[in-house]
TrEMBL record:
It comes from the Eukaryota. It comes from Linnemannia elongata AG-77. It is found in: Cytoplasm. The keyword Manganese does not apply. PANTHER family: PEROXIREDOXIN-LIKE 2A (PTHR28630:SF31), PTHR28630. The keyword Cell division does not apply. Belongs to the peroxiredoxin-like PRXL2 family. PRXL2A subfamily. This is Peroxiredoxin-like 2A. Its main location: cytoplasm. InterPro entries: PXL2A/B/C, Thioredoxin-like_sf.
Length: 237
């Protein structure tokens, strides 16, 4: 485990999470309980209604049987607000484990101790517009204005017990997705379960589709740009 991963692990292991959906009464627990007995993937999403977040968990869900049943991982989603959580869990995450991070501890860990907020210039960068157009082509829908969607998320792969973090992905551009082939590669290394060629090709195929949609969006949507800022009108979405 690298020094940076060790710092991230120290920051997330004692974060208090709340199990609140389909649960009466709500219960709380430390994040380390998730990977106490098995390794885990923790998907830290920006907003339950975010179409990019829904797109990402759909891709991960396509590999759920491999990751959970064959590799022995738990996969959980962490969110910082409850608004829209039930729809997210049942319609896009297929009932998977979903927990509330009231303190935003996972989000602060990804930001090196503080929340990482998308700045105003992020909203006018071509990368965001192209990601939005890419998402439209994926067929996964969401909403744009319900809830707080400016806090960057990411993904952690955590080894069993106190062995620490094996991999982290930090969202740096709104709509960027964790590369599923890398996620599976690390899960394979941690679990000792070899990936079959078909599984590797499926993951790479999904990444290729994402890239193709992004390239098509860039080709269709880009207008006049000044450096990294594009004058792409909302009508293009």
């Amino acid at each position: 485990m690298t020094d940076q991963h060790a710092q991230h692990y120290a920051a997330i292991k004692d974060v208090v999470l709340t199990d609140f959906l389909d649960k009466e009464p709500e219960t709380t627990f430390k994040a380390s309980d998730i990977w106490k007995d098995q390794p885990a993937i923790v998907v830290v999403i920006r907003r339950p209604g975010c179409p990019f977040c829904r797109e990402e968990v759909r891709i991960i869900d396509d590999h759920r049987e491999l990751i959970e049943k064959e590799m022995g991982f738990r996969i959980v989603v962490v969110l910082h607000e409850k608004l829209g959580a039930a729809t997210f869990k049942h319609d896009y995450w297929k009932g998977g484990e979903t927990y509330f991070d009231k303190s935003k501890g996972f989000y602060k860990a990804l930001g090196g101790g503080k929340l990482r907020w998308a700045s105003i210039d992020q909203l006018i960068r071509p990368s965001l517009w192209f990601n939005a157009l890419r998402n439209l082509r994926s067929g996964v829908r969401g909403n744009l204005l319900v809830g707080e969607g400016r806090i960057f998320g990411g993904l952690y792969i955590v080894r069993k017990g106190d062995e620490g973090i094996a991999y982290k992905f930090e969202e740096t551009v709104l709509g960027n997705l964790a590369p599923i082939s890398k996620v599976l590669e690390v899960c394979s290394q941690v679990s000792g379960v070899d990936l079959k060629d078909a599984e590797i090709q499926k993951a790479k195929g999904q990444e290729a589709q994402v890239q193709e949609r992004a390239d098509a969006a860039a080709k269709a949507g880009q207008t006049e740009c000044d450096g990294d800022v594009c004058a792409l009108p909302p009508s293009k979405l």
